[in-house]
Amino acid sequence: MSIILAIETTTELASCALLRGEQALFRQSSGVQTHSHAILPMVQSLLAEAGLSLRQCDAIAFGAGPGSFTGVRTACGVAQGLAFGAGLPVVPVVTLAAMAHAARVGHGAAEVLAVLDARMGEVYWAQYRFEDGAEDGGQIVVPPTLSRPEAVRPQAPGAKMLCCGNGLTAYAEAFGDLRAAYAWIPELMPHALQIGALGQQALAAGLTLDAEAAQPIYLRNKIAFTSAERAEKNAALQEAAP
To answer: Are strands 122-129 and 139-147 parallel, antiparallel or unpaired?
Structure first.
């Protein structure tokens, strides 16, 4: 029975979870500015409630991104630091895949379009498809992608596709057609419970990394734009708008 500690700080909601077999405990805290201060006390609280030490865990899973630049660095850095100290392997988990897993397990979705607000007029998105009865990570139909909302194009979407994530409401006008055609759960966001569940699957498959090999997933190479670049980008977005 594996024991997984999971950490997720890539969005406005920070969470951590402790999964022991099918049992799960979790903590969460809102406020993107406080993630680096909140996550370690939450981890300590979880371990104390479970009566476990960190060394008794089998691995540490973390939301590797995509997500906020600071958030993915926080999740990776905390996971690495804890793993180094306890001599544990780590499991990077794609945040969009964790959202798809939540939609599959919690809502029975056969297909999921996960969309996160990437700021700067863009979104992170991916599309996943699940076979009947499957509760794994699903088939990747469209890998994690960074684009303008207008450029989000699901590939051969099924009639029962579920759309989730805060990018749907951040750019609601761009997703009007999807909202009319498919189930819509914008409040479904990355959470440590699903990071941990996918971490358990990866651990069982032997897909872990040494702590020093862990890396965040960055889809945007440039984090900040100059004033001139922002003006040019905004002009392009206005031209692309219907």
So the answer is: antiparallel
98-185 classified as CATH 3.20.20.80: no
Beta bridge mates, 92: 62
How much is the pLDDT for 224?
Answer: 46
pLDDT computed for residue 159 by the predictor: 86
Are 63 and 9 spatial neighbours (Cβ–Cβ below 8 Å)?
A: yes
CA-wise closest residue to 172 among 150, 146, 142: 150
Q: What is the pLDDT of residues 78-123, one digit of tens each?
A: 999 999 999 999 999 999 999 999 999 999 999 999 999 999 999 9
Distance CA 171, CA 185 (A): 14
Handedness of CA 81, 68, 188, 130 (dihedral sign): negative
Average confidence (pLDDT) over 44-62: 97
Residue 34, classed as helix, strand or coil, is: helix
Looking at residue 239, the DSSP 8-state letter turns out to be H
Dihedral, 173, 194, 137, 68 alpha carbons, nearest 10 = 50
What topology is assigned to 3-95+190-213 in CATH?
Nucleotidyltransferase; domain 5 (3.30.420)
